Amino acid sequence: MVVGPAKLICARVKRVEDPRFLTGRGRFLDDITLPGMVEVAFVRSPYAHARIRSIESGEALRSPGVLAVLTGEEAARQARPLQAKLHEAPGLERLARAYRIADWYPLAWGRVRFMGEAVVAVVADNRYLAEDAVEKVLVDYEPLPVVVDVEQSLQPGAPLLYENWGDNLMLKADFRSGDTERAFREAHVVVRETFRTNRCTGLSIETRGCIAKYDFSSESLILWTSSQIPHVVRMTVAELIGVRENKFQVIAPDIGGGFGIKSHVFPEEIVLCLLSRQVGRPVKWVGDRLEDLQSSIHARQGVFTVELAARNDGT
């Protein structure tokens, strides 16, 4: 029997998806194994801001079980960077054009801009061998000044993340509605207050992860990813690595929590696609708890100054 919408409003609707999870029949990303699958570990920056002087990966490449080592310079030749920008959706054209573009390379190239940013990827027969090889990669960093407060970042002389910008202001926009000046001029009371929110992040039981499988015979690619936006991942990654969308399938298995973290496209999804194409085998990465915290997006720090004009009649 089909239940109409009117029967569901204010009703206690029984969930139908729970029994499968409660009885251990969920299939999450880390449950997936493929024939010949190898695993990836990342060298991640211990600095929040640094220049990469050099990378020596020869010893890691010669380590037992290692199939490939990928650096930021090599990845940049194969894929375009992600770009933090606002798409020109209807009504947002003016804002989208005002955004400054920030390039986020699949692997850091030339400079790291946050602690935990991926610098080198190592592919090996299993995660243990990959992690052992990661320890043998030598990265020469030149630490640079950091800024960890949004108000300090806008001060003259603050360290710049993108030197060609000249400052750290990504977007400045004005929104107007009604006669604001008159409202304040005729107000009986004006209240001004500043509110601050701290940075925070979501912490799902399942960390981020993905598996990529490239098929040379059909020149097609399959990406399994613990993502809440598989269609966006497909569109974005296909464009950045130069694969036609009709040759690229993205599969989102059961998701072990997301809280917004998994509603973004991440560099690891690009890197694994490149690596699978390079080594000719399925490649897998599941983030550990520390790298998931360091490399996933977070809710940005906020400073909100609000001024309210009111009249005695409540308007």
CATH architecture assignment = Alpha-Beta Complex
Quantity of strands, as a count:
14
Low-confidence stretches: none
Task: Note the overall shape.
Answer: globular
Radius of gyration: 24 Å
Oligomer: single chain
Number of domains: 1
Q: How far do the termini sit from each other? A: 51 Å
Strand content bin: 25-35%
Which superfamily, in CATH terms, is the homologous superfamily? Answer: Aldehyde oxidase/xanthine dehydrogenase, a/b hammerhead
| CATH topology type | Aldehyde Oxidoreductase, domain 3
Order of helices and strands: HEEHEHEHEEEHEHHEEEHEHEHE
The share of residues in helices is 10-25%
Strand order, sheet with most strands: 3-7-1-13-10-11-12
Largest sheet: 7 strands, mixed
Structural class determined from secondary elements: alpha+beta
Helical element count?
Answer: 10
Mean pLDDT: 94
The first-level CATH class name: Alpha Beta
Descriptive account of the structure:
With 315 residues, this protein is α+β, with helices and mostly antiparallel strands. It has a single domain, classed as Alpha-Beta Complex (Aldehyde Oxidoreductase, domain 3). 23% of the residues lie in helices and 25% in strands. It has 10 helices and 14 strands. The chain has helices at 18-22, 58-61, 72-78, 93-98, 127-134, 150-153, 180-185, 230-241, 267-279, 289-295; strands at 38-44, 50-56, 66-71, 82-84, 102-104, 111-112, 118-124, 138-143, 189-197, 209-215, 220-225, 248-251, 283-286, 302-310. The strands form 4 sheets. The protein has a 7-stranded mixed β-sheet with strand order 3-7-1-13-10-11-12. Strands 6-2-8 form a 3-stranded antiparallel β-sheet, with no helix packed on it. Strands 4-5 form a two-stranded antiparallel ribbon. Helix 8 links the parallel strand 11 (220-225) and strand 12 (248-251). Helix 8 packs across helix 9. It is globular. The mean pLDDT is 94.
